[in-house]
Amino acid sequence: MSGKHVLVTGGAGYIGSHTVVEMVTAGFSPVVLDNLSNACPESLKRVEAITGTTIPFYSADLLDKPALQAIFDKHDIEAVVHFAGLKAVGESVAKPLSYYKVNVGGTTNLLEVMIEKGVYNFVFSSSATVYGEPQFLPITESHPAGACINPYGRTKYVIEEILKDLSIAEKNLRVVLLRYFNPIGAHKSGTIGEDPSGIPNNLLPYVSQVAVGRRPELSVYGSDYDTVDGTGVRDYVHVVDLALGHIAALKKLKDISGCKVYNLGTGTGYSVLQVVEAFEKASGKKVPYKIVDRRAGDSASVYADPSLAEKELGWKAERGLTEMCEDCWRWQSQNPQGFKKD
Ligand code: NAD
Ligand code: WQD
């Protein structure tokens, strides 16, 4: 697919920025759209430094259709990788309309413009959250989906259903839905990584902010689950492996018709305390923690069966928990305040 461009929405964000790096390495020409609501322009400057390439960037909102049309008019776009959206579970409960408007409305806007401009290749950031409470483990793509427990998750499920309907109506449309498990880690350079605004919702950013001294201690949400040590188990996947999953998906598009769904995870689950231990080893820092009540909506264990992605995309996560923690720590220790103040 080289020669033409791939539009990356949300390309200044955590997973998007890492994917842009891998796209350049793989010979794709990314063009980034991001409204910077949850990202800094600095992230793309660093992507340019890593890749030695200038990345065309548009500070634009998915809801601004003329701005989307202008990008498709300016560049010869052959595919879209769609990361942009809102992703904070708690905020989605408080502001469901914002989530439906941006995630669902933003995606339908984008799809309308793609079809108007004759662009039919689409890779979408979905989430293991669409599976809801696991009915069996490991979770395969045929696990029932849709019983989401929060509005964020429902937006992902609704978008998946829209894409399935649309790929029936639009025979040229080729869609890969990637259901991510728990992305963590950072690029080896330590120059890009996850930079949440405010108090982190997710485990790894919280642990790394404790290790770097920004927060006093971690709250571990429950120690009475039916797991190896009573704490919640998740399938953590290195963000660079995840990025490479998007390269595999882009390459797959030319061979498929309709809509394909793949889990992107490692297939191995680790408990909260196992993650804390691995992080302490990787960083050489103590991570003080206290056990508190369970967090509403959490499952005991969630991990993927990633074998379909290996079979059909030729993709397999290669980086283990130690490397995830080492890379996360390199980013956090080199950038204690994230992109804002080093
Ligand atoms: P992120 O917030 O770092 O990236 C999303 C980007 O989209 C941000 O840069 C933000 O500025 C941009 N954006 C938001 N609303 C926009 C709008 N209306 N118009 C244009 N740009 C907009 O998040 P991330 O962790 O990189 O996640 C990327 C995608 O992957 C999201 O769709 C998210 O739901 C999905 N996902 C993330 C995880 C995770 O744990 N990080 C897990 C599963 C799925
Ligand atoms: C992991 C484990 C917590 C924070 C969320 C979203 C999901 C997806 C990925 C986008 C759990 C425990 C956490 C803390 C803790 N995002 N924990 N103390 O809940 O698996 O998934 O992010 O699609 O939709 O729900 O990830 O990192 O929040 O939690 O003990 O301060 O760490 O209870 O067991 P989760 P997480």
Bound small molecules, by name, code or SMILES, are: nicotinamide-adenine-dinucleotide, UDP-4-deoxy-4-formamido-beta-L-arabinopyranose
User: Which class best fits the helix and strand makeup?
Assistant: alpha/beta
Please bin the fraction of helical residues: 25-40%
Give the full name of the CATH homologous superfamily of the largest domain.
NAD(P)-binding Rossmann-like Domain
| CATH fold-level name of the largest domain | Rossmann fold
The CATH class of the largest domain: Alpha Beta
Number of helices: 11
**Rg for CA atoms:** 19 Å
- Globally, the shape reads globular
Describe this structure in words.
The chain has helices at residues 14-25, 41-51, 65-74, 89-94, 96-116, 151-169, 203-211, 239-252, 272-283, 307-313, 321-334; strands at residues 5-9, 29-34, 57-59, 77-82, 121-127, 174-180, 182-184, 218-221, 233-234, 236-238, 258-264, 270-271, 289-292, 301-302. The chain is of the alpha/beta class. Helix 1 (14-25) runs parallel beside helix 2 (41-51), helix 3 (65-74) packs parallel to helix 5 and helix 7 packs parallel to helix 9. A 7-stranded parallel sheet has the order 3-2-1-4-5-6-11, with helices on both faces. It has a 3-stranded mixed sheet with strand order 12-9-14. Helix 1 (14-25) links the parallel strand 1 and strand 2. It has 2 domains: 5-184 and 236-264, NAD(P)-binding Rossmann-like Domain (Rossmann fold), CATH 3.40.50; 186-234 and 268-334, UDP-galactose 4-epimerase, domain 1. The structure holds nicotinamide-adenine-dinucleotide and UDP-4-deoxy-4-formamido-beta-L-arabinopyranose (WQD). UDP-4-deoxy-4-formamido-beta-L-arabinopyranose (WQD) binds at residues 87, 89, 127, 129, 153, 182, 201-203, 206, 218-221, 232, 234, 272, 295, 298.
